[in-house]
């Protein structure tokens, strides 16, 4: 696994699922009430797997599966966990759902396909873009927008958390 920095954009290379889990675990550990994480990438890039690993490390018990048809699933962990999949929504439909209650609440929001509703996301948020680069390999581009997310990115890089 490797982390590199390029203009506020950090590239995390996951060579296998354990590397992806390490990133998910670190982010779950630093998550605070009101955390919003946007997660994008092609079909099959690992968004739901990342969400499941994140939930596991946030202390969610039981099975976490994709909320593709329910849009939002709520779980209890160290913090409430709101797993969203907005793939099938239009911007207008998403706006009518009242997502602000989740985004500015006491829980953690992880939004799959977040680029679809980018205008609705709060200014401060973390964004991950996952790309498949091999059977088990993923390139994860991470960007922090505002506080504390920019600090999280800097700390990941500065402290060498994910360097092998």
Kindly report the CATH topology: Rossmann fold
Strand order, sheet with most strands: 1-2-8-7-3-6-5-4
The total of beta strands comes to: 8
Q: For the record, what CATH class applies?
A: Alpha Beta
- What about the largest sheet? 8 strands, mixed
Helix content: 25-40%
Overall geometry: globular
Question: Please, what is the CATH homologous superfamily?
Answer: P-loop containing nucleotide triphosphate hydrolases
CATH architecture: 3-Layer(aba) Sandwich
Number of helices: 5
Low-confidence stretches: 1-7
Please trace the helix and strand order, writing H or E for each element: EEHEHEEHHEEEH
Number of domains: 1
Radius of gyration: 15 Å
| Mean pLDDT rating | 88
What does it look like?
- The protein is an alpha/beta fold.
- The protein has one domain: P-loop containing nucleotide triphosphate hydrolases (Rossmann fold, 3-Layer(aba) Sandwich).
- Helix content is 27%, strand content 29%.
- It has 5 helices and 8 strands.
- Helix 1 (17-30) packs across helix 2 (47-57).
- Residues 1-7 have low confidence and may be disordered.
Relevant terms:
single chain; alpha/beta; Rossmann fold; disordered N terminus; nucleotide-binding; ATP-binding; cytoplasm; tRNA processing
Summarize the structure.
The chain is 27% helix and 29% strand.
How are the SSEs placed, and which strands pair?
Layout: E1 2-6, E2 9-14, H1 17-30, E3 36-41, H2 47-57, E4 72-75, E5 81-85, H3 91-96, H4 100-103, E6 108-112, E7 125-132, E8 138-145, H5 149-158
Helix pairs in contact: 1-2
């Amino acid at each position: 696994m490797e982390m590199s920095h390029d203009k506020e954009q950090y590239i995390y290379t996951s060579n296998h699922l354990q590397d992806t889990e390490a990133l998910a675990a670190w982010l779950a550990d630093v998550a605070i009430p009101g955390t919003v994480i946007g997660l994008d990438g092609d079909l099959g890039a690992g968004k739901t797997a990342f969400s499941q690993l994140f939930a596991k490390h946030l202390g969610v018990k039981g099975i976490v599966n994709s909320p593709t048809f329910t849009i939002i699933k709520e779980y209890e962990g160290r913090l409430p966990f709101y797993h969203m999949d907005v793939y099938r929504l239009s911007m207008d439909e998403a706006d009518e759902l009242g997502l602000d209650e989740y985004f500015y609440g006491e829980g953690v929001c992880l939004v799959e396909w977040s680029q679809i509703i980018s205008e609705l996301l709060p200014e401060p948020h973390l964004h991950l873009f996952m790309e498949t680069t091999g059977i088990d390999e993923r390139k994860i581009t991470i960007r922090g927008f505002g506080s504390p997310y920019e600090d999280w990115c800097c700390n990941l890089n500065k402290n060498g958390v994910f360097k092998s």
